[in-house]
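step: validate -> pass
step: tokenize input -> pass
step: predict -> running
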Amino acid sequence: MMPHRQKSRLCRMEGELQAPGGVPGRAWVRLPVSQEPESTAAASSTLALPTQREVSAAGPPIRAQSHPSTSSGTGSAATARRESRGGAEACQDAADLRAQHENALDIKMAELLQLLLLKYRLKEPITKAEMLSHVTQQYEAYFPFMFRKVSECIQVALGIHVKQVDPIRHCYVLETALGLTYNGMQDHDRSMPKTSFLIMVLGLIFSNGNRVSEEELWEALSALEVYDGREHYIYGEPRRLLTEEWVRERYIEYRQVPCSDPARYEFLWGPRTHAETTKMRVLQYLATYYSVEPESYASLYLEALREENQRARLGDAA
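step: predict -> pass
step: emit ->
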């Protein structure tokens, strides 16, 4: 369905934030793209290597022992076997060291993610200095990579955008993505934001001709392990969200398909969605997840571009 290698470690930490039954936002339904995203490992390959300090702490490098030359074929074979075993042990040691290094970075990124979520709930800004002092001081060299990956994880999995407000002090605020004002959390609520789920549904509606039938929607959401009538550990009861809360909040329009007998229903964007965000923002969000350019979704991009131009003309006229 999509390449997971680039983001396999990115949101693995996210599973520790709630129940262990999966990671929110990790499986998106297929959208009509003009090209398949290419699988790359470049984003995480540098972190797979151990640091010089860890290599030194592991002890001196293993070298093949030298042996007197002999005309005996048996001696040569024994020497080759010893060298082969030594090489295999060295490879295993290096693999173990890489795994320990990756696990340590995952733990630090999970701590950074928890800190950012706390600031989001408290509606407080956060600085780079504060982040380093709390969780990543000893990993300062890796901080740019870690901060970028955690920011991507929060945006994709939870619908939270990390925005820089002071480049001098490196100060950031956390806000819901795409300009949406909804996060599905009550005051002092310890639950997770539900913005990403809303964006998923908006993307499905947009990519299916700006309307999607109830049957098609539930079939697509099953890829996310979101099912009609089944409580989700983050989103709660999804039907209530789709047909009651988001309808009441005017993000979703839920209506009967005209002339359908027996009655069938479909979902469309609501007036609040049109007021707070655009098709281009939703498309850019999807493209970010798939690690492609928005133009890769040719027909959707042209439709979003037409809407942008129309909005610009209306703004000029006003």
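step: describe -> The first helix runs from residue 42 to 45.
step: cleanup -> pass
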